[in-house]
Amino acid sequence: MAKKEVDDRFKKFGTVSFTAITKTNDFIDYLEKGKVMGTKCKDCGAVYFPPRSDCFKCLDSNMEWFEVSGAGKLLSFSELKYGPVGFENDLPYTIALVDYGDYKVFGRISKDIPYEELKVGMGLKAESNTLPNGQLNYVFTTP
Length: 143
Ligand SMILES: [Zn+2]
Known about the structure:
The chain is mostly beta strands. The protein has one helix at residues 26-32; strands at residues 37-41, 47-48, 63-67, 72-80, 93-99, 104-109, 123-130, 136-141. Bound molecules: zinc ion (ZN).
């Protein structure tokens, strides 16, 4: 009997490993290709970020991928000086919620943007990023 292969691509995401097994592992393949992706329900059009493999509204899994492209609007942000275990070496960093209209994306702001220059309402785009330890994530940068 063939050994069952474990789909653990999410191990490559973030500073600390996420839950390794999920139905949205393609997210990682897209990040490796430089794309930040969410999912969209083919039945009702609901969009999800982080990507989900099931639609809350339809209770169905008829989903397709879409790219988080273009600029969203910075809704709120906060500089973290203390972080959870595993994030100590990244501190300080700024987390943000960016509004893309149909969905919102939560993530970090690139250290290329000085904290003093951040303003609610400014445009930001999500970009895939490789951390110094080789792990993948995404950051918000200026469009
Ligand atoms: Zn749906």
